[in-house]
Amino acid sequence: MSIEVVYETHALTEDNERGFATGWLPGRLSEQGRANAAAMGQRRRADGIAAVFVSDLRRSVETAEIAFGGRDIPVLYDWRLRETDFGARNGSPSPEVAADRLDFVDVPYPGGESHRQSVARNARCLADLSTRWAGARVMLIGHLATWRALEHVTTGRPVHDLVAGTFEWQPEGWEYRLD
Which one is catalytic: 4, 8, 62, 83? Predict the structure, then answer.
């Protein structure tokens, strides 16, 4: 039985606004990000979501707290939904991290992980969803690595191509079906 997945990135952060690649650092939502998270909660209020799965990094947790706090939907935190660990480059300027990202598709960032490893980690979380949520509609709040894993698992797009491509944020998120 398949699972319907609604995916949205964490809301806008102070690091996003300043142009930094937060990676495994916690990050904090900006004022605009908090408004975006509230809008997410309104948008998803009657969306049939059975559970929300969230990266345990602070920016994702804060997004979920604002969007789903005080509601009867279970919010479950999973470290596997984290962004790529850029290691020593966590918190570096985004253009620097983006410039040589293809060098780290298969080779880990110094002190971190490769993009392939982060996609595989996120994909393991996706594979586990069916043990409890088969036939349900669930939401994921994560990062670029989470989107890459969803694209890789559902379409078969190669990790290299996903890392090489341009990510375009969608304000209303994405929908996937996991079989």
Answer: 83
CATH number at residue 158: 3.40.50.1240
Closest CA to 116 of 77, 165, 155, 149: 149
83 is known as an active-site residue: yes
Q: What is the mean pLDDT of residues 42-65?
A: 97
Query: What pLDDT score was predicted for residue 171?
Result: 85
The catalytically annotated residue of 8, 10, 115, 152 is: 10
Domain that holds residue 163: 3-178
What predicted TM-score, i.e. pTM, was given to this entire model? Answer: 0.96
Total domain count, the chain:
1
152 belongs to the catalytic site: no
Instruction: Spell out a b/e string for 53-79, using b for 16 or more CB atoms within 10 Å of the CB, else e.
Output: bbbebbbbbbbbebbbeeeebebeebe
